[in-house]
Amino acid sequence: MHPWRHAARETFFEATPAACRVSPVGERDEHESLFANQAELTSSMETGAEHTLIIRTPDDFHLHLRDGPMLEAVAPISAAQFGRALIMPNLNPPVRTVRDALAYRERIMAAIHGGQSEVPHAPSFEPLMALYLTDGTTPEMVREAAASKVVKAYKLYPAGATTNSAAGVTSLEGLYPALNAMADCGIVLCIHGESTAKDVDPFDREAHFVQQTLPGLMAAAPKLRVVLEHCTTKQAVEFVSNFPEDRIAGTLTCHHLMYTRAALFEGSRLRPHMYCLPVLKAEEHRSALLHAIKHNEKGRFFLGTDSAPHLEKDKSTPKEGCAAGVFSAPCAMELYAEIFDSVNALEKLEAFCSLNGAAFYGLEPNKGSMKLAKRARSVADSVPVHPLGSAIVPIRAGHEVAWTCSRIEK
Ligand SMILES: [Zn+2]
């Protein structure tokens, strides 16, 4: 059955901002009690009935949608799972001005409401725009961005750190006036936190940035609100957790929460579709990320998939090397559900996916809901991008995820 039609019948479920409900299918009614604790969940699972969670519609605070045919192929996929997404500006050329952002936003909306994808149209989706910080960003540009209302953040890419980051920042000192203007206007700074120094090992780049660069940046702009994007190390989550003021947060991807660098070499073969930046890390770091989502009392960690599609030909061409990025959009929420389930923390899933990020950005939570059923489904082998004659291979391609998610709109 068409997933949206199925979802439409479920509108009698009310989302609760503070807790998730879990109940066997067939025994639900609108007066059912709130999900109480893990023991209740575990005991009801033993009966063999399907279990469901209802949470507020989630947001993705770190998403790459690309442009052109790729945008048309992937935007509806994220819109099927998320109510809003913060759209990363690393196009080529980058999204630098309010004008660029407004035009890109229009292309995103057109892709969702009439692109080539066969994914059903999402009930509602709002792209939140981020601008690309460069050495030339001025306080005036920041104030114009804030006045636009559609721009919520600037994204700092150290020059050369990742895909399309050649125009990124080479020196932070000259940007302090712009950073302080962001603080004054309520614009968030999102950081790709990796050192680009040639002598730093790729697996140590994030820890190096967190220890050598981030403290100075936080001190130089003492009111700036900062998101350390895609935290992948214990150093990153400890910095965010222990920072003495409530003006820093961290996004966590599903792939860094679920996989270690071993996934890059599984079965003695190099796995290009698991190659991303920051690169997957060792188990001790993944454990620190899991600890962060389980003990997220300050609400500083929230969802950012960093879903970053590349065509298969760009992932597997040996001559030019493999592009960095994991495409998780087709099953992102299912993977987050698996992760929270694996650490017995499903009652923390809603705050992570649907509340903490909105609060940090000063937004109301979404109005609709999402139903997550613990029912396996398979993930497609690939998402075709017909005009480009290639396809995007998602994470878990051709395999199953343990949950099935569907949005429920009011
Ligand atoms: Zn990214």
From TrEMBL:
<dbReference type="GO" id="GO:0005737">
    <property type="term" value="C:cytoplasm"/>
</dbReference>
<comment type="similarity">
    <text>Belongs to the metallo-dependent hydrolases superfamily. DHOase family. Class II DHOase subfamily.</text>
</comment>
<dbReference type="InterPro" id="IPR002195">
    <property type="entry name" value="Dihydroorotase_CS"/>
</dbReference>
<keyword id="KW-0378">Hydrolase</keyword>
<keyword id="KW-0479">Metal-binding</keyword>
<feature type="domain" description="Amidohydrolase-related">
    <location>
        <begin position="60"/>
        <end position="376"/>
    </location>
</feature>
<dbReference type="GO" id="GO:0004151">
    <property type="term" value="F:dihydroorotase activity"/>
</dbReference>
<comment type="pathway">
    <text>Pyrimidine metabolism; UMP biosynthesis via de novo pathway; (S)-dihydroorotate from bicarbonate: step 3/3.</text>
</comment>
<protein>
    <recommendedName>
        <fullName>dihydroorotase</fullName>
        <ecNumber>3.5.2.3</ecNumber>
    </recommendedName>
</protein>
<dbReference type="GO" id="GO:0044205">
    <property type="term" value="P:'de novo' UMP biosynthetic process"/>
</dbReference>
<keyword id="KW-0665">Pyrimidine biosynthesis</keyword>
<dbReference type="InterPro" id="IPR032466">
    <property type="entry name" value="Metal_Hydrolase"/>
</dbReference>
<dbReference type="InterPro" id="IPR004721">
    <property type="entry name" value="DHOdimr"/>
</dbReference>
<dbReference type="InterPro" id="IPR006680">
    <property type="entry name" value="Amidohydro-rel"/>
</dbReference>
<dbReference type="GO" id="GO:0046872">
    <property type="term" value="F:metal ion binding"/>
</dbReference>
<dbReference type="GO" id="GO:0006207">
    <property type="term" value="P:'de novo' pyrimidine nucleobase biosynthetic process"/>
</dbReference>
<dbReference type="Pfam" id="PF01979">
    <property type="entry name" value="Amidohydro_1"/>
</dbReference>
<keyword id="KW-0862">Zinc</keyword>
